[in-house]
Amino acid sequence: MAIFDKDIRILIADNKDFRNIWLGETSAHFGGQLTSFLLPLIAVTYLHADGTGVGLVSAVQFVPVVVLSLIAGVMVDRYPPRRTLVTASVAQGAALAVLAAFQAADGLNFGQLVVAAAVIGVATVFYEVAYQSTLPRLLPLNSIAAANGLHQATYSVSTLAGPAAAGFLVGQLGVSPTLTVAAACSAGAAVSGLLLRGVKAPEQPRESALKAIGSGLRYTWSLRPIRDLCVQAGLSNLHEKAFLTVFLVFAVRDLDMSGTTVGVITGIGSVGALIGSLCATRLTRRWAVGGVLALGAVLAAVGLLLVPAVSQVGGYVAVLASVAMMVNGFGVALFNVFAVSLRQAIPPEHQIGAVTASYRLVALGTLPLGAVVGGALADALSPGRALWAVGISYLVVSFWLTFSPLRGARTLEEAQKLGRTTDTPESQDADRSPSV
């Protein structure tokens, strides 16, 4: 554990509740990455689905983020997180176990795969909102950034290892045993959730779900620092997805790269993300939290803009593009660590679920739009020109946070005070009303 920052090592050693929930999140992340790669793989190789079918299997795992994030926020703020974490993990594990049983018996069909993918997507939304809303209830404010750095590192490793493990296990053991391994990961997350006994839901008046969702959205949007984070995250994800969509077409058609090479180049970005997540809290010992946050957004854009630049070099394009992707991953990790930390630190406890759900809705809701925009630009401009267009546009919007009051916050404590003192009358009313 020497690779971890001292604050992270202390956090793991001294906080039993955090250690348990982090281990559960690690298991859930690895299982999630394995599953997200495995289900489309089953559709292609075993069910011989066409491109539309494969897209449907991937999409139904993502659609619940848009449809159910706000409802998940209501549930998390009304019930103890232990209940949500365990229920979501059990539902996901059960869906995977049923798929394994069907495959072992008579073989899967496409309908069963789609239904299971939808259940897994729903469970993932509730688990992620519950996990991210629970951290600030377990930890003091000065430990949140270290915890999120560890979370981002775990995510980066899972992103690298999950798909590789899925391909290896399917090749060596077959589909049914691999599904069973994924189900076991969900079981591990459920056990972790069961051990979380001391965290209760905030006490607050009850109101209808629709009213709670509305008040949560009003609060989130009227709070300037949180609104700035939402906008930056949404714009960044839109450009990231558009760029990766165009890059796949460009690399295969214009650079004659194989799908494996493209996957390796893209995956190497996770190495940069791992480095960034482990360095994040160290950087704030010299620079302001707000400055590192803004720097991360800009570095992420610079990394992607380097890709079309190095493609003009001629030789070693794959190596240089991989380095550019590492710069992007490093910047994304810096932004994510502190964006999550700030959105957990700024709101009062009874609004954390609402802010988490609203943020995820905006941040992740732009991903399908980015894929569509990227594909359209590749067809309209040519893939090479589309890469430049998306990269330059991304660089421009990456400076959004430099105009935010968050830019001057040196610590999470300062950002928290900033958030509490820049509430508009609308946000103050939302704070006094029954919240989600």
TrEMBL record:
Q: Which domain of life is it from?
A: Bacteria
Q: Which PANTHER family match?
A: INTEGRAL MEMBRANE EFFLUX PROTEIN-RELATED, MAJOR FACILITATOR SUPERFAMILY ASSOCIATED DOMAIN-CONTAINING PROTEIN
Q: Which residues form the Major facilitator superfamily (MFS) profile domain?
A: 1-416
Kindly state which keywords UniProt assigns to this record, in alphabetical order.
Cell membrane, Membrane, Transmembrane, Transmembrane helix, Transport
Q: Under what name is this protein listed?
A: MFS transporter
Give the bilayer topology: Multi-pass membrane protein
Compartments annotated for it: namely: Cell membrane
Organism (species): Streptomyces mirabilis
